[in-house]
Structure formats: C-alpha cells, structure tokens
Write a structure and sequence with these properties.
- The chain has two domains: about 240 residues, Glycogen Phosphorylase B (Rossmann fold, 3-Layer(aba) Sandwich); about 160 residues, Rossmann fold, CATH 3.40.50.2000.
- Helix content is about 45%, strand content about 10%.
- The chain has 15 helices and twelve strands.
- Strand 11, helix 11 and strand 12 form a beta-alpha-beta unit.
- The longest helix has 29 residues.
C-alpha cells in the first residue's frame, strides 16, 4: 500500500506523523511524508521520502509572535493571510506527493481532502486534540477560554465557523475550481462530513463528547515517537552529577524576549529546585551568563529517555510533550501559549495531574515557583495510573490496523 502522510504544524504536529510513517513502513507499506521544509532533514535521517509543503513553520511563528497569544481575534487575520498565501502551495505540493498513492493521511493539512477527491482515493484525518472537532462541551481550537457553559461554546463555534470559514472558502474553492471540483459551501462540511478521524489522545484525559455521534472518530491514544538516539554524553553527565533536575523547555514556541524569559525561568526554578536542565528550543532561552546549577541544551533530546529521570517538567502544554511526560509519570507544569495547549492545561488540572496552567503571557518567576512547588506536592497516584495506562497503549499500531482494515474492505490488498 502506498501512503502519503500530509502534515502541517510545528514539531509537536510532525513528530507523531513521523511515528505513524515509521510504523507503516515497518508493516511493509510505502510511505511519503509531506510537511513544512523545517522537517526535511529529519525525514532524510529516517530515510523517508519527503515533499516540502508551505513556508517554514519556524519562520512563520517568529514573524507572528504578537498574534501567537491568548487572543483569538489577533490570530484570525494572520490565519487569513497565511491561507491566501499558502493554499495554492499546499494544493500543488500535496498533489505532487500523492500521485500514485492509495490513501492520504492528513495531519492538519487541509488541502488533503481535495487532493484525495481529485485522485479518487480515501482520506483519513488526524487530530491530537478534541478541540479541532465541534462540540458544545469545549470551545474551538483557537479559543483559550476553557470550562465555559455549553451555550457559550456553541456560540463560539458558530462565530468561529463564520469567521475562519470565510477565510478558508475563497482560496480553497479557487484550488478546487482549478481541478474542476465542485466548490465547498461550508468549511464545516468540508472538514468533518464523511471522513474518518483519528483522535491521537489519551482516552482518560480526553473523553469523547456525547454530541459527536455525527462524526466518525477513532480514538487511538497518543502516537509516540520512540527516538532511537541516546541522550548526549554531556546531558548524561549532568543527570548523574546530582539529584534529578527540573526541566524547562517550550518546544517550538517562540519568545519575543528570550533574555527576559530566561531570567524568569532561572529565578522561578531556583526557589523550587536545586538544578535545572533548560532546552533552548525555538524560544531561544538560555543565552548569557547562568548559574552553575543550570545546564542549557541547544539540540533536541529524546524525551522518552529523559523525562523519567527528572524532578519535574515545565513545558508549553503541547500534546506530544504532555503525553510523554504523563507516560513517564513525572510532575508537570504547563505554560500554554496557544491553541490546544490551553485545553490540555485545563484538563490536566481538572484531573489533578498538574496544577493550573500559567498562560505564557502571565508567566513570572513567582508564579513559576508556586506552580513547581504545587506540582511536587500533588498526589502521585493519578500520575501513576496515567503512566501505566499509556505504557500499555500503542496508538500507532491501532491506527495502522484501522487503515489496513478499511483499505482491505475497499478491495485493496494491503497485507
């Protein structure tokens, strides 16, 4: 079976897509990955055929730091501009990647369904959070406010569909017209009607809303990427030189003022723990003179090897980082920046898996200190239960079995 995995987003979106790609290849299938150019080198290291699609996601995030906050009204115009600029590229490059394919798996790559329609092949969609799918039980993905009454969530979905849908319709219908496909009248129907969705999220952390009966959603659990690389010698030496450190890293989230953020992190952690392992990430933290108890790592680290050896993990609340920390059973402090990170910070606190999250725009040394201390005194039992549950799950395997069963049912021999 020839599979195209078309993914869009930062590392947290691409990493589980690569986990699926490697799982499909191990099962004997031919896999091509299409994603932003930032990840071409990573795909090459894994010997996965790669087709670049769209602009650099790091460049985009850094250019729009001002809009990457808790205010969806500032984010919507940015999304509209990006859609106008990037949709023709997504259409062309995704089609290029999918020529000759049997199936497309779309990880937030919205052109994929039109490409699948043009090529007359099946399409599976993937989300890592429930807030991408409409429900009265949670707000839309771009809305940070959690715990609202159902009537408020319904209004937010209606407004979001109208505003975001309007931004989508023109560029997407232009692409569809170029391929002589019928225009879409509604973003909602285009994205959700008649297409199966994988929800790659923990079944306890994310419980299926009762009003999803009209959608086909297969909840698999998270898709973990088991990085074969060991921890580097300098990180290993730091871990062995003293008690477990507190880790701080914000992944692909940029920072307007890295020096100020570094100061907050150093001051906030020094009052809560003796040692700190800081990941530079796209925020660029860790520059300048630092205390001897702080080590800065400039490259990515295999989280599944690192997290079980830490005192606590301070991170942005990305679905992948959070799930890996849950599987490790380590205390977490979430500092949500945007999108689903607010949802996960809310759910983690509701289940007593972490203290209430600190929105990135409100992060201070004092708040960070209080949150770390609160995380360290939370009962470990909910974390143990989550870790045991996730250690038994294999979301990638379940997703592959589902794809193979559907394709076999349609008459394509895949095994």
């Amino acid at each position: 079976m020839r599979v195209v995995i078309a993914a869009m987003g930062s590392r947290g979106d691409i990493q589980p897509a690569l986990a699926l790609a490697l799982g499909l290849r191990s099962a004997g299938h031919l896999v091509t990955v299409s994603a932003p150019p930032d990840f071409a080198g990573w795909a090459a290291e894994l010997n996965l055929p790669f087709v670049s699609a769209g602009e650099s996601i790091e460049k985009f995030l850094n250019a729009n730091i001002g809009a990457m906050n808790a205010n969806p009204l500032r984010l919507v115009p940015v999304l509209g501009r990006v859609l106008a600029e990037q949709t023709p590229i997504w259409f062309d490059r995704t089609l290029q990647a999918a020529e000759g394919a049997d199936v497309i798996v779309s990880c937030h790559q919205f052109a994929s369904r039109s490409v699948a329609e043009k090529l007359r092949i099946p399409c599976f969609c993937v989300v890592y959070q429930p807030t991408a799918l409409p429900s009265a039980f949670h707000p839309p993905l771009i809305v940070p406010w959690q715990g609202l009454p159902r009537w408020a969530n319904r209004i937010l979905w209606t407004v979001t569909d109208a505003i975001v849908g309007n931004a989508f319709l023109k560029p997407f219908n232009q692409g569809r017209q170029n391929w002589r496909l019928s225009p879409m009248s509604s973003l909602h129907s285009y994205l959700f009607d008649g297409v199966p969705y994988f929800l790659a999220a923990d079944t306890m952390l994310v419980q299926r809303p009762p009003d999803w009966s009209r959608f086909e959603v297969i909840q698999t659990g998270p898709w973990f990427y088991e990085d074969p690389e060991p921890l580097t010698a300098d990180v290993e030496e730091f871990l062995q030189a003293g008690p477990p450190p507190i880790y701080v890293g914000f992944g692909s989230m940029p920072a307007k003022d890295p020096a100020r953020l570094t100061k907050i992190v150093v001051e906030g952690t020094s009052a809560a723990g003796p040692r700190v392992l800081m990941s530079k990430g796209w925020a660029g933290i860790g520059e300048g003179s630092l205390p001897p108890n702080v080590k800065v790592v400039h490259q990515s680290m295999p989280h599944h090897r690192l997290f079980p050896r830490l005192a606590a993990v301070v991170h942005h609340g990305g679905a992948g980082t959070m799930a890996t920390a849950l599987r490790a059973g380590v205390p977490q402090i979430l500092v949500p920046h945007l999108m689903d990170q607010f949802y996960y910070a809310y759910r983690m606190a509701a289940l007593k898996l972490a203290p209430p999250g600190i929105p990135a725009g409100k992060l201070s040394a004092e708040r960070l200190t209080r949150a770390i201390k609160a995380a360290l005194v939370l009962s470990p039992e909910p974390r143990r239960e989550a870790a045991l549950r996730l250690q038994k799950q294999n979301g990638v395997t379940l997703a592959i079995q589902t794809i193979e069963a559907r394709m076999n049912h349609q008459g394509l021999r895949v095994t």
